Amino acid sequence: MSGVLTVILVIALVAVLAVLLVGVYGMGRGGAFNAKHGNKLMRWRIILQLVAVGIMLMLFFANQS
What we know:
The protein is an all-alpha fold and 65 residues long. The protein has helices spanning 2-29, 31-63. Helix 1 packs antiparallel against helix 2 (31-63).
């Protein structure tokens, strides 16, 4: 079980990093892309971070003996 959660956690963390990088890049460039997608990307980052923290908590409780 913890092996599966670890893989899901890595996927969630990569997703957080990808959304963060796209959002920061868009903010740096500005323009229409940032105006249209900037806030949505940062909201998705927060949601994905919440999911990642939840998975970390599940891993913590799954590994306690």
